[in-house]
């Protein structure tokens, strides 16, 4: 079905693996198109409750495909960036939580892809960076926007302007990633986190992601109103009744609002 990615579903968890190991999983137009297609499928499948994104081989994604980019003119370059933004925005806003299991190099477009995910878990072998200025360009898939929101403007400028590549421990220190584990533990840890999430009320997870994403980019007053409305909506859900009842009865809840 797909040529550049692998897709699996197991116990309500979808795993998307970028599979161009000889090209270090570089993002070309075909990869972007297939990522868009698979995340539309994920968005519309109510049985999927969480997603894990990773790469095959020794790279998560080593960047956008330089061989393809080298041939683009100004109009084509803008179209390529628009395609990248379309994919990253879809991943960021899909209702299901997306966990990046960063197994190796996450450079350029790979770092941008990881940042579009909700949670980043990194192998100790992972490397992060935005080295685009060394090619005479800038991050084009949202890196200039998401990186300062995660690590602060000063650190983002340092990483983008210098093109420095950092290891997983430094990425954790600056809050670019949430967890660092040994390589052999990476997928198990990602699955563990995914299971922790899908154990909770689906409608609550959806609204928590929505409020967190949208409330972050607005003023406190508007964000507060957004949160209050979402909180009130949940009080009309079956899952809120079931969750509170199960807590009081000291049993596991049986969620209904998928």
Tag the structure with descriptive keywords.
globular; four-stranded mixed β-sheet; 49% helix; six-stranded mixed β-sheet; 2-enoyl-CoA Hydratase, Chain A, domain 1; alpha/beta; 10 strands; 258 residues; 2 domains; Lyase 2-enoyl-coa Hydratase, Chain  A, domain 2; 11 helices
Describe the structure.
There is one protein chain. With 258 residues, the protein is an alpha/beta fold. The protein folds into 2 domains: 194 residues, 2-enoyl-CoA Hydratase, Chain A, domain 1; 47 residues, Lyase 2-enoyl-coa Hydratase, Chain  A, domain 2 (Orthogonal Bundle), CATH 1.10.12. The protein has 11 helices and 10 strands. Strands 1-2-3-5-7-10 form a 6-stranded mixed beta sheet, sandwiched between helices.
Short description:
The chain has 258 residues and is an alpha/beta fold. The chain is 49% helix and 17% strand. The protein folds into two domains: 5-198, 2-enoyl-CoA Hydratase, Chain A, domain 1, CATH 3.90.226.10; 202-248, Lyase 2-enoyl-coa Hydratase, Chain  A, domain 2 (Orthogonal Bundle).
């Amino acid at each position: 079905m797909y040529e550049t990615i692998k897709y699996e579903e197991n116990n309500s968890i979808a795993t998307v693996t970028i599979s161009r190991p000889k090209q270090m999983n570089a993002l070309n137009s075909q990869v972007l198109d297939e990522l868009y297609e698979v995340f539309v499928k994920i968005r519309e499948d109510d049985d999927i409750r969480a997603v894990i994104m990773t790469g095959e081989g020794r790279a998560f994604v080593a960047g956008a495909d330089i061989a393809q980019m080298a041939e683009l003119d100004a109009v084509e370059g803008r179209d390529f960036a628009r395609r990248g933004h379309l994919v990253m925005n879809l991943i960021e806003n899909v209702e299901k939580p997306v966990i990046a299991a960063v197994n190796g190099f996450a450079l350029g477009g790979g770092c941008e892809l990881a940042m579009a995910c909700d949670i980043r878990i990194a192998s100790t072998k992972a490397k992060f960076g935005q080295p685009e200025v060394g090619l005479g360009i800038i991050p084009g898939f949202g890196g200039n926007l998401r990186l300062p929101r995660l690590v602060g403007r000063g650190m983002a400028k340092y990483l983008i302007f210098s093109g420095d590549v950092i290891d997983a421990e430094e990425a954790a220190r600056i809050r670019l990633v949430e967890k660092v584990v040994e390589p052999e533990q990476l997928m198990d840890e990602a699955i563990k986190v995914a299971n922790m999430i899908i154990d909770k009320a689906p409608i609550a997870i959806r609204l928590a992601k929505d409020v967190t994403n949208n409330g972050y980019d607005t003023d406190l007053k508007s964000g507060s109103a957004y949160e209050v409305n979402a909180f009130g909506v949940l009080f009309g859900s079956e899952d809120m009744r079931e969750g509170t009842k199960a807590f009081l009865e000291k049993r596991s809840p049986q969620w209904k609002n998928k």
